Amino acid sequence: MYIGLLKGIYVYNHVPFFLAFFMYLGVCIYQLMYTFLPFYLVKKFNISFVLLPVFYISFEYLRSIVLYGDPIGNVSMFVYNMPFFIKDASWFGSYFVGLKLLFVNIAIYYLYNKKIKQPLIILGLIACLFFVVNLPPKNGSLNKTIALIQGNIPQSQKWDSAMLMNNLNVYINATIKTDADLVVWPESAYPFLFSPRDFDKFLGNYKTPIIFGAQTQRGYNYYNSAVFFNNEKFDYYDKHELVPFAEFIPLRKYLSFIPTVTKFGSFTHGKRFTLFDVNGLKTAAIICYEEDFEQIARTFKDLGTRLIVVITNDAWFSHTPTFHLFYRDDFYRAIENNIYIARCANTGFSMIVNPSGKMIASLKPYTVGILKAKITFNDEDATVFDGFGHYFTLINLIFTGILLLIFIFRKKKAA
């Protein structure tokens, strides 16, 4: 599932294969640790197998907050395209959907083994959860046409100095011939260190608002940014969740003895949550795998955004299973926050997801194209998840800790 990481590190970052493989293996072992521990604890302390989902989801949540956070590959990703099953993410989020999915599988296991009592209880609970009623959206009156430009620039030529201007022209030419209220380019689509003066030379007279990815500099700090251009004015959102060993080096001063590490530049973590005003439409931009962090989208929703634009460059993982890991969480972000998600990716998967978690438009991966869609934005309507449902993961974690202490005490008492 993570083989694309090895490709990205070794082929495109030119890290020696041995070191790249060691880094890749480390990620795999780290992921497996959080998968293995729930099973180990349930078996070691004679905890009922019915409670395994509670433990499993707690460790998924821990993985997303420990160290630098890694929410990728949660069990909920397997049902992202089943709106009838995932609709209650608007109540308690994607982790709750994962819990429900695991309970379904536990119930099937018990039914298969003809253990009657437990599945009846579990299936009864699941039946109730399937009929969670979501409030119908309010009628909206704000219409905007969104255009997502998928450049399909191979990673092997993306930073080739001889190709930089050609790469930029792919987006400029597509933008000029596009009639829309908002045009979006992918992450790092602008191939030079961003300068407003230089950008004006290319599209200074263009009147339509544009959101595009670029590397920016302020003072001595460099950022992976989403730049907003509107009527000769610029604003920025700087990526908060940087990718370890790709966009920054954790514990850099302790690893400086490795020659490859000293060659890596590092971005600075962003601090602001910036909203862009697209002629009356409050819009947020999130970058790359920030789409997998539920708290980032929720923070933007709390600030009043009505559209979340995801810009990303998944060319690092092209034609590997890793390519399909990231976009699946956008379906949950849409449902959790009752909001449209517009995902613009360099090589795909570019798409628009409505607040019900249904994909209403998309482009075929590994193609050059422009995805246009006219969207009617509903009046602002908060979900249970926005209000307090996001505390589900914390409550589940506390509940898991209490259960574990009870079973540890019982085992010691029995001994």
From TrEMBL:
GO terms for molecular function: N-acyltransferase activity. CDD domains: ALP_N-acyl_transferase (cd07571). InterPro entries: Apolipo_AcylTrfase, C-N_Hydrolase, C-N_Hydrolase_sf, LNT_N. It is found in: Cell membrane. Pathway: Protein modification; lipoprotein biosynthesis (N-acyl transfer). GO terms for cellular component: plasma membrane. Pfam families: CN_hydrolase, LNT_N. Its main location: membrane. Residues 149-377 form the CN hydrolase domain. It is a multi-pass membrane protein. It is an enzyme of class 2 (transferase). Its EC number is 2.3.1.269. GO terms for biological process: lipoprotein biosynthetic process. Belongs to the CN hydrolase family. Apolipoprotein N-acyltransferase subfamily. Catalyzes the phospholipid dependent N-acylation of the N-terminal cysteine of apolipoprotein, the last step in lipoprotein maturation. This is Apolipoprotein N-acyltransferase.
